[in-house]
Give the backbone structure.
Amino acid sequence: MNPITIVALILNLFFLESILKNPHYVVEIGLVLFLISSFVTLKNSKFGFFSLKSLKSLILPLLFLIGTILSLLLLGSHFLRQVLIFFYIFTFGIFQISLIDIVKKFSGKKDKEEKVKMHIRESFLVIATYFLITTGVLGFYFYLSLPFWQVFLAIFVVSWALMYYTLWRAGLIFANTWLYVLILGLVMVEVLWAISFWPVNFWVSAMVLVIIFYIFRGLVWMYLQKAFVPRLLKEYLTLGVVFLIILLATSRWTINF
């Protein structure tokens, strides 16, 4: 880990703690965190500050930052806030270390194994980001009575952006990629519309969205990779369905804040 990344992690820790002490300045502090995260990401991406690839590499860290800030404002427990802050610092550090993987050329058995490891690491970061943002958006919808069209738009944009980021990192940007990304965004909006009628807490609704996103993201990735292996398909569907059943079976079916 280079010195710039270490300094950025320390500054992120300081300013996230500042949000807890001065929540009224969350916008100003958030902008500072945006600048810090953007600078270190562009610096570590090795593509320069003004290339299109560098700008694409900002999608995940900036969305992860937005989700973290939203969740910090929603959490009532000081302990959970501290856990979230250190989770963000740890995950952000892993992301910065993994940026060098973008410029690697994979070939041979060993490099294929590295590519699989990179996909697993990226998947964890993407799913964590999706959970934090959906939780934050739905939480603010419940507490502040935001217009539902704004929630729809936010979920569509986040689903679209994270799916596009996944395919870009995997080198799967083709002429028809936009169609699959658009369809996934619309599917997630449809799912959100359906579960909006369920009498469950917004945390449960967010988890349902995350599970559905995990399943469809995996299916699209496998299809475009031409790796529609029955074993992998069963793993994605089985894991997603099992988690969904456990979630719905253990949830309280009444709105409880």
Remarks:
- The CA atoms of residues 2 and 97 lie 9 Å apart.
- The chain has two domains: 1-103, 119-257.
- The first helix runs from residue 3 to 21.
- The chain has ten helices and no strands.
